[in-house]
Amino acid sequence: MPGRVTLAPGVMEHARAQPSGLPCPESQQVSPLDERLYAELMEPRRLVWRARAARPAQGELKTVYALRRAEALGRPYVAKLAKCSRRGTRVKCGCRGWRGVRLHTCRQHLLCAECQRARARRMGARIRSGLEAALAARPGEMLVLVTLTLRHSGDVAVDRERLAEGWRRFTRAFWKEYGKFPYVGVWEVTAGSDGHGHVHMHVAVVWPWRDWSDVREMWLASCPWSERITFVARRRDGRPSDAKSAANYLGKYLSKGLQTDDFSKELRTRVIAGTYNSRWVFSSRRFWILFVPACQRCHCQVVAAQYRFRGEPWHPPVECERGPPQLSLEFPERWGLHR
């Protein structure tokens, strides 16, 4: 119907307005970042990928990959958020006739609320399983939550690199003195009272009792920019920390993003650009437990429904009664089923 306005989801019916006539696309969204500053900060990375694409002595696949990376770095950040959960992959399991969809998310967990919640649930469960395995393999040792901070320079990228380098030095010094230990940690960025961004590390470690003063001196010697180190070995109810409480504690920081009002657009942009292509969850070697997506009803592996695979058929566990899929496959990580 001419003159009719289509409202976006979540807009109240009584808030209808007539078109303004301006050349504005219907899909336009307000970006949470300063797109001009974001393009300036990402320009050096884009030039690096363009230079890699211009190398003569490399294959066609590497050249195309470098060009795609350079092209992606030149797009507005809001375009990534707009594509979240728009497409997906049809999947199936051993349940006869069942078909599901695994949506392709944007994986921008710092600014996408949907990806934040899904990532916090997924990584929280994996952290718990890894801590349970570490505690079972090292009986008699304790689970300690460690919080690390440093004197902030005003540059989130610089502070993060300093804190990461201090942690690497600390682990090497600790391993040399006491031996290796399993750990898992997450990063956190807060706006801070000055609005310049403050970086923190929250780490769950498994080790025997140690004198906190000795560990503190070792940390301050490893990270000269640090202010303090905090240890928490018991929960609020006085009981020792366990895998569940530690996973919930770390999962709380995984569910935090940059959407709050104390983050300005400039600070959000600098955090996103300064932490580009970097990990927000880190761990020791062999910490993670292999995760295989399985149906809770038939206990069969969940696989892509429309992907053809020529290989050996997959045999289901004994407790499965409804039969497995016709063929199983090793699906790429980009489908999102590993996480």
Major sheet description:
5 strands, antiparallel
Can you tell me the overall shape? globular
- What fraction strand? 5-15%
- Helix content range: 25-40%
Distance between the termini: 45 Å
CATH topology type of the domain at 113-258 and 278-283: Alpha-Beta Plaits
Mean pLDDT: 79
Instruction: Tell me the Rg in angstroms.
Output: 24 Å
Element order: H for helix, E for strand = HHHEEHEHEEHEHHEE
CATH architecture of the domain at 113-258 and 278-283: 2-Layer Sandwich
For the largest beta sheet, what order do the strands appear in spatially? 6-3-5-4-7
Please give a handful of descriptors for the protein shown.
Alpha-Beta Plaits; disordered N terminus; five-stranded antiparallel β-sheet; three-stranded antiparallel β-sheet; alpha+beta; globular; disordered C terminus; single chain; 8 strands; 339 residues
Describe the structure.
This protein is an alpha+beta fold and 339 residues long. Helices cover 35% and strands 15% of the residues. The protein is built from eight helices and eight strands, in the order αααββαβαββαβααββ. The strands form two sheets. Strands 6-3-5-4-7 form a five-stranded antiparallel beta sheet, sandwiched between helices. A three-stranded antiparallel beta sheet has the order 2-1-8, with no helix packed on it. Helix 5 packs across helix 6.
